[in-house]
Amino acid sequence: MAGSGLKRRRRRRIHLSKLYTLTCTQAFFKQDHSQIGGPGYSRLVFINEPDSPEADSSSYSDNYVRTTKYTLATFLPKSLFEQFRRVANFYFLVTGVLSFTPLAPYTAASAIFPLLFVIGATMVKEGVEDWRRNKQDIEVNNRRVKVHRGDGNFDSKEWKTLSVGDIVKVEKNQFFPADLVLLSSSYEDAICYVETMNLDGETNLKVKQGLEVTSSLREDFNFKGFEAFVKCEDPNANLYSFVGTMELKGTKYPLSPQQLLLRDSKLRNTEFIFGAVIFTGHDTKVIQNSTDPPSKRSMIERKMDKIIYLMFFMVVLMSFIGSVIFGVTTRDDFKDGVVKRWYLRPDSSSIFFDPKRAHVAAFYHFLTAAMLYSYFIPISLYVSIEIVKVLQSIFINQDIHMYYEEANKPARARTSNLNEELGQVDTILSDKTGTLTCNSMEFIKCSVAGTAYGRGVTEVEMAMGRRKGSPLVLQGNESDDVEYSKEPFAEEPTVKGFNFRDERIMNGNWVTEPHADVIQKFMRLLAVCHTVIPEGDEDTEKISYEAESPDEAAFVIAARELGFEFYNRTQTSISVRELDLVTGKRVERLYKVLNVLEFNSTRKRMSVIVQDEDGKLLLLCKGADNVMFERLSKNGREFEVETRDHVNEYADAGLRTLILAYRELDEKEYKDFSVRISEAKSSVSADRESLIEEVTEKVEKDLILLGATAVEDKLQNGVPDCIDKLAQAGIKIWVLTGDKMETAINIGFASSLLRQDMKQIIINLETPEIHSLEKTGEKDAIAKASKENVLLQIINGKAQLKYAGGNSDAFALIIDGKSLAYALDDDIKHIFLELAVGCASVICCRSSPKQKALVTRLVKSGNGKTTLAIGDGANDVGMLQEADIGVGISGVEGMQAVMSSDIAIAQFRYLERLLLVHGHWCYRRISTMICYFFYKNITFGFTLFLYEAYTTFSSTPAYNDWFLSLYNVCFSSLPVIALGVFDQDVSARYCLKFPLLYQEGVQNVLFSWRRILGWMFNGFYSAVIIFFLCKSSLEPQAFTHQGKTPGKEILGGTMYTCIVWVVNLQMALAISYFTLIQHIVIWGSILVWYLFMTVYGELPSEISTSAYRVFVEALAPSLSYWVITLFVVVSTLLPYFIYSAVQMRFFPMYHGMIQWLRYEGQCNDPEYCDMVRQRSIRPTTVGFTARLEAKKRSVRRSEPES
């Protein structure tokens, strides 16, 4: 048994040595190798020589990594600096400092306490967040790895102790502790498999290979006496480049990215590796890449800053007015021996009331008033909003309706700064593959030797049938939204990735086809031309495939299902079981892999060079049609016309296509190529990649066409419904994709972004003039003509829009990547944006990642409205970071988009709930919360101004010092926080049922200047009513049963009580959805005021000062106090109540309409609900609901003619 287990482990070890990239059989150096040691290439590493004086690495960073914002020493100064960068906080700091001077109208303690409370709460929040990051840092830095300590022995040490030049041993499933040069591995050829998900989000494994000269160092004791010297590039952020040399025993060897193992990537499918530390700590490439994401602030937050400045202006204005009046009054206080304000003793006063120095007294009064009126500015606004946003984010994260059970992925708000922005989105810019579609590819059709195979029907073809009236569509259904009949080929595929049905070539029947030899080469290319890793199950003997992309896996699975099974790979070979055309038997064939020319977005193709068992050298190539057809030889175009037609048909059906071709190489040509590719790869110059590209260009030519593949990337569940609801909400949707125009258009039809009656404005450069220039003209001439052509097409498109005028015609703009490059030029982009904004739907095809980001920037800056970008891949990162809100789909393409996003969701359809429910709620809550904050502070602060005016601006506050200080902190803050977290104008069901409601956010009706100023006016007139009613009610008569008239303390206490009641009951009137928590905080705040008055008044008079026993002895026993409070509160709230009732009944906003529907029980009346919904359907709206409406309009227009 033990022998059997050992044998199995050996088989497993050999089996895992699979993937082979580009062969470099011999190291070559070019003349430009001399740049090593020059600027940018000056790093010197002495490997395994810790005691050498030359190996002093003290100048290099240590391996301790810190991601925290603060340290213990910098927390206090840095955090305080962050807090006082806010204008409001700085203002309160200045008033707090001035409160220690005689100018202060209140005690210093009462001024400093609320500031300390707010700043302290925010600093505690910052500290807790940073402490959590510090815990993560400690956990990472204390991870352990085996390090060579000399004499061939390895000891376990913490990551943070590593130094440049150390040799480490990393074992399977461990992370690399620093950037390492791979020396050797558990495989004889020194290869290893690396998972880089933490770096680029990609889930596929990458293969790395050490130098041949160090591949034999596979045991611990081999490193006794081992020494090497590395010269390489300086630390930089480029993950995909590395240039250097290793000097070993007097010989230099080139180093490339193939030997570099990056920190935080993981060792997989390899028992162990030995590596030398090259970059440590903050010099590692992953840390060099960890720049802070762009700072994003919501439109509401930016507008709130303007309101703060307005409030500052009001404070300054009131202080100025008061100081002028005070100065004039003071000057006239002592005139001709007559004393007007005798109680101020102007004849013997100090500077504050000295009539002889009235101008100085006025200036001092200005400073005093600026401190007193500081209560206009809500000191707790910022911290309250932060608390509310964090709690809102928790509700988003825990929403079960946005939890994707299949992948166990909930929604995740990665930042809480943009919650309210979710309710104001005007334009969505979406990726297609993996975002609208599943990125789960199925091989469904192919074209071989000019013959089309595959009888499957795609979702796009179903949508095309619906709009063209195909006989495949079920009859008898009046709806435009019918489905295809379920044919056998439309069933779910039994093999994942393979949905192909065609008896002509399945089950070995291809051998009877006219071009069986071409079919054989086609299938063989599918089975050999790839970088897939086979994983064999030793118990079931079934083979699964691990591929870099879903397309790759689909091709290999298709080849297997059609009789060409790829089952094993070693470093230099691929093994395939295939059907022999001559004998008709299944045979095993071995293909020696000589080179793999890998796919990238620039090349748009990949090739392998293999040698078959007969010694033939074959170049097998697959790639995009626009790069492959131009590489065909004259005698290799036999099936070109038919293949082009089939590719166009496949694109029309929404399928992703690749062209397959091959050629035979002679030995001389291959030897020449092998030398040149080795030289290019061994180059350490900056243009290394272009040298490689130049060599591959020369060999990937004169190809013979075999055919084309077509794979389907299906729409995600719920995408058409989601797009329909978002469109009804008035949100514009743009699609930015790298796919062909035909594929993108048909996905647009399938997802209801396009419809049959839309007029398509297509902008591309596929014109005879441009084609002829490309063949004969120079680059400058081509660029100039192309730009003029694009501009002309854009102008013509705008003319079409203008001509349509007020008609109900809807336009769709479709532009390809080549044209988009010119449309985004500075002198054209604004014209292009005007055209795009006028269209119902915009689709940008063949877009590069940079173009996606530039389009997003153009839309964001051009129309000044909120943009949301959504994508799932690394190519969407720029777009996500550029948009106001970036939403990452945690899908098949890894986590790179998620890591760069503001919010992560698992499926596109969850965007509907995220925006229409959470977005609307958060926008409404934050808007109302901010307006209410300013209302309650104006109500409070303006009574101070009125009282001071009543006392001829003598700088006397109406209230006790601690009444002033605790107003924002204790008596009015919790209700507004509860509103920000719990309030709902309508339920989630009605938010989704009536998407029209979302327009409140898009039009910003709840946070417009009209509404803000309305709330401010509410505060001003509330203050006026409270002050004058309280003053008038208390002035003429005795207040207590002893007959005493009210003084400042009684007037101030009564006014303050009325304010606490009014602002809290105003909150009750503003709330649409009461919860137990809201009842507790509203009535609790009022109760806390009475408790505070009682307890504070019982304290010694030295502490309670003017509030000493005022409530117990004066206010509470007096019936007039309670009557006045009731009368004033009702009188103050009555105007708002009448205004709200009239508006709700006769001029309701969107949410008011829906509340009336619910109140009158008409929510289940389909006809009435449909009438309300129609307000959000315009001719330019997309989605299937709009499509049905367009169809009805078309029928109505045609009725008179018939």
Automatic annotation (TrEMBL):
InterPro entries documented for this protein: ATPase_P-typ_cyto_dom_N (IPR023299), ATPase_P-typ_P_site (IPR018303), ATPase_P-typ_TM_dom_sf (IPR023298), ATPase_P-typ_transduc_dom_A_sf (IPR008250), HAD-like_sf (IPR036412), HAD_sf (IPR023214), P-type_ATPase_IV (IPR006539), P-type_ATPase_N (IPR032631)
GO cellular component, one term: plasma membrane
GO biological process, alphabetically ordered: phospholipid translocation; protein localization involved in auxin polar transport
Record GO terms (molecular function): ATP binding; ATP hydrolysis activity; ATPase-coupled intramembrane lipid transporter activity; magnesium ion binding
The keyword NADP appears for this protein: no
Membrane-topology descriptor: Multi-pass membrane protein
Catalytic activity field: ATP + H2O + phospholipidSide 1 = ADP + phosphate + phospholipidSide 2
Cofactor(s) for this UniProt protein: Mg(2+)
Places the protein is found: Membrane
Membrane spanning residue stretches: 87-105, 111-128, 307-328, 362-383, 933-950, 962-982, 1012-1034, 1054-1073, 1080-1099, 1119-1139
Active site: D431
Record flagged with keyword Transferase: no
Domain P-type ATPase C-terminal as annotated: residue spans: 898-1148
Keywords: ATP-binding, Magnesium, Membrane, Metal-binding, Nucleotide-binding, Translocase, Transmembrane, Transmembrane helix
Enzyme Commission number: 7.6.2.1
Chain sites annotated for binding ATP: D431, K432, T433, E552, F599, K622, R656, T737, G738, D739, R846, K852, N875, D876
Chain sites annotated for binding Mg(2+): D431, T433, D872, D876
Main location: membrane
A Pfam family matched in the record: Cation_ATPase
Job description of the protein: Involved in transport of phospholipids.
Family: Belongs to the cation transport ATPase (P-type) (TC 3.A.3) family. Type IV subfamily.
Protein name: Phospholipid-transporting ATPase
